[in-house]
Amino acid sequence: MRMEIDIDKLVEEFERGSRVAVARLITLIENDSDSAQVVLDRIFSRTQKAYRIGFTGPPGAGKSTLVYRLSKYYRALDKTIGIIAVDPTSPFSGGALLGDRIRMQELTSDPGVFVRSLASRGSLGGISRCTDDVADLLDAFGKDLILIETVGVGQSELEIAEKAHTVVVILVPESGDSIQAMKAGLMEIGDIFVMNKADHSSAEVAAREIEDTLRLKDTSEGDWRPRVVLTSAIENRGVEELATAIEEHREYLLTAGVLEKKRRKNLYSRVRENILERLEERFLNSELVAGILKKRMEDVYALKVSPYRVARELEQYLKIDI
Amino acid sequence: MRMEIDIDKLVEEFERGSRVAVARLITLIENDSDSAQVVLDRIFSRTQKAYRIGFTGPPGAGKSTLVYRLSKYYRALDKTIGIIAVDPTSPFSGGALLGDRIRMQELTSDPGVFVRSLASRGSLGGISRCTDDVADLLDAFGKDLILIETVGVGQSELEIAEKAHTVVVILVPESGDSIQAMKAGLMEIGDIFVMNKADHSSAEVAAREIEDTLRLKDTSEGDWRPRVVLTSAIENRGVEELATAIEEHREYLLTAGVLEKKRRKNLYSRVRENILERLEERFLNSELVAGILKKRMEDVYALKVSPYRVARELEQYLKIDI
Fold first, then answer.
1. Same domain, B91 and B19
2. Are residues A213 and A138 in the same domain?
3. Could you tell me if A29 and A73 lie in one domain?
4. Which of A101, A197, A320, A321 to mutate to test the interface with B (most CBs of B within 10 A)?
5. B94-121: b or e for each residue (b if 16 or more CB lie within 10 Å)?
6. For all residues of chain A together, what is the average pLDDT?
7. Could you list the residue range(s) of the whole structural domain that residue B9 is in?
8. What is the pLDDT of residue B94?
9. What is the value of pTM for the model shown?
10. Is residue A207 part of a domain?
């Protein structure tokens, strides 16, 4: 019960606008999924107001610097900002160059900005849940914009597309190999493509390549046509153009009714993930199933029976009833 | 029933050594998980004999070329080889430079080698299952070594560590940023680290950096100490050293009894994944749960109730019984 009381007190302080309370609640959410549920139950009705923008791309593409520049731009327009970094290489997570860290400190000293990095080790499911929950918390705290930075290769990119309303894919003009790779996974999820480090001579060629690839995409009349923006985060060029492209995408989502669909999809997949976690926990840990599973695994190890057959056998013990 | 008969016939041809049957069975495994189960049930008792080596690293690190060189090396020792590419940028998957593709064709014309790339779009779970099943199939087909190439950033790297007996992480001497990134995820899973493109002047510095990082790892007496090998896949240098390091790791696994533990862990997680897929399918699609879920999702969308609360409610309908 002591824990519950602490959470109540923290949520009260959170409601009075305490940044310390936000930080502590995030730590609770990160470390303990039971507490996360208590917190979310309490604050959920005040969420889903902030606009969520995801930033993804390969390590070293300059995601953090661009997030910093964009934050400064939005702050000048008096918008409040929450930044969530789900990227082990982000300077927000402490793992980067001195110049980056200094810029980040400048941001964190602004009361209109709340920055938090999430540990990216641990289970995929855990990080995914945590990103959603922390975004909700910053949303309920009243932030206008939530910027989510995530390292975008592999499968995490698919997740950001479910969490963010606008996905910005940040690329650098590089060797053909890497661009090929990025395209493979990232072309499908980007609403806006940024070719960063545009001072590089090959940037315009690379940007055209991306535009060509995008043109091949099967889009119907009225669909969003992804934008390509050239930026130089270091020199602070192209940031306004990027903000304009984001705003255009937001307006498209609102006009086409897609924003509400995206919100619903995210909420549904959170319910689904949470149900599956509970099913796993209860089913595999039940005395009946755990006992049979232990015995049958020996047969699998001895190659007497396939993994599939054992799964089929165990499925029989699942009953659904009031 | 027709499908079952076809599978029987294919498995018979497979047993007689038909490469065409292998290719067709893999297509079945890829496209249809029900058929995959029938196939696996039939061949499972003959699996778990091949040694499985995983190759992971960032796009453009030269994974495919190194897999090619190593395959040639093993073929000269008369070992048979199965290659599985789970990487959209792999030349095995058709997405690469001409020189690579020519090398790959040379491999595929050798009857001692069977090469297959797996579609890497689709659900993470689906690809993961498929990789295991195809590895089993090539194993039962009598291949001595299974080489699995996977793009290693994000979370897929954690999977290769469960599927392969030896994990080779391939890096290139590059900008500090990228190496940081790679380290974050890859340092923990590599049994052997390859610094490829060792003609590059910075290769030795980068290799030393990796060795330094490895030294910080908390290893007990008798634990495997990851090796660092310098290679140049293009110039065919360092390949024998890599093969030696792989052999040393295999001997370590056998002596320390770890190989059997790895095999069991992989088999257990396959049973577990398959059970969870079945639970999800049956639970969420049951009339009772689907009906309530649909209704309660409207309350979630209206912010009346949190995703967690709905998941808790639905959990109540799970019963476990004979």
1. no
2. yes
3. no
4. A320
5. ebbeeebeebbeebeeeeebbbbbbebe
6. 86
7. 1-45
8. 52
9. 0.84
10. yes
